Structure formats: C-alpha cells, structure tokens
Amino acid sequence: MEGKKAIRAFARRLAEPDVIRELNITPMMDMMTIILVFLLKSFSASATNIKFDSNLQLPPSTTQLAAREAVGVTITKNVVLVEGDAVAPVNQGRIDPTLKRDGENGYFITPLVDILERYNRKERKVAELTGQDFDSQLMVIADADTPYRLLTEILYSCGQAGYQNYRLVVLKSND
C-alpha cells in the first residue's frame, strides 16, 4: 500500500510541470544594477550640456573633437559666469575696472580668479582622494562676438587661478 501511494505521488509530480513557488529577486537585482551602471556610464560619456540664451551665440566650427567635462566659464554679452553663477558684469564688451586688480588696463579679474581658485582646490582634492591625475581643464564658452581684449583678460585670469589648459566651445557646423 505504501509503495502504491509513493508511485502515485511520484507520477503526479511528473505530470505537473515545476511551478516556481517563490521569486528569487537577487539575480534580477544584479541584472538591474548592471543595466544602471551601463546607462550611467553612457550618460556621463555623452556631450556636455550648455544652456543657450539670447546673449550667447557660439561660433561655428568643423572640429571633430568631442566636448569633455570641465569647469565652465561662460562669457555672454552681459556677464561672465562660472558654472552658471554670475562673477562679473560685462558692459559694452568690458569688465568694470573696479573688479580688476590693476584697474582699467589690467588683465587680472579678481572675483573670477577667486572663484576659480576655489574650484581648482576642490578638483585637486577630488583627484588626490580618488587617486587620479589632476587635469586642470577649463571649458570656455564665449559668445561669437566677444571682444578679443575681454577674452584675453578672462584667459589670463584663468591661468592665474591655476587653469593653464582650456578648450573653447564651438558649435559643430553641418558642412
């Protein structure tokens, strides 16, 4: 009798397909984590986002180089910005002489140097803590009609703050 019960139970188990009675969530979480890491890496490798307004028209270029992430200095017709924060007003293509260390003919823009030195120290600390090489890259986003004198004043000030390497951001032309 016991043998017949065991045979019937075994036959029933063979007839029923294996039903998953509980969901094992660990492999699904592993898969989602891998997808998330992939998407984050893909997103961080994409082009840099730049906010445009009526005071900023980038010059066109035929460059094939991709934009890299760096501290951004934006020069519009009305203001100089560092990472979106206003640093110095621009009036008729010139910086207010009271904001320059050496007055009207000076190149050293004091508030710009001060804020860039803070960013430089922060980037050096991050590079030191992560064990990466420090790359003092600066991304200069200037209006196409920016006067040369204003551009050189800003680049000089950036150099004084520890940013000797910079990239000028341009629009890729469709040619």
Indicate the structural class: alpha/beta
The gross shape turns out to be rod-shaped
Low-confidence residue ranges: none
* Range of helix content: 25-40%
Give the averaged pLDDT, no decimals: 79
> How far from one another are the termini?
89 Å
Radius of gyration: 29 Å
Tell me the strand order in the biggest sheet.
5-4-3-2-6-7
The secondary-structure element order is HHEEEEEHEHEE
Largest sheet, if any? 6 strands, mixed
Number of helices: 4
Number of strand segments: 8
- The count of domains is 2
Our estimate of the beta-strand percent is 15-25%
Describe the protein's topology:
Elements: H1 2-15, H2 25-44, E1 60-61, E2 71-75, E3 79-82, E4 85-91, E5 94-95, H3 110-130, E6 137-142, H4 148-160, E7 165-168, E8 171-172
Helix pairs in contact: 3-4
Explain what the structure shows.
- This protein is of the alpha/beta class and 175 residues long.
- It has 2 domains: 2-44, no CATH class; 60-172, no CATH class.
- It has helices spanning 2-15, 25-44, 110-130, 148-160, and strands spanning 60-61, 71-75, 79-82, 85-91, 94-95, 137-142, 165-168, 171-172.
- A 6-stranded mixed β-sheet has the order 5-4-3-2-6-7, with helices on one face.
- Strand 6 (137-142), helix 4 and strand 7 (165-168) form a beta-alpha-beta unit.
- Helix 3 (110-130) packs across helix 4 (148-160).
- The longest helix has 21 residues, at 110-130.
- The N and C termini lie far apart (89 Å).
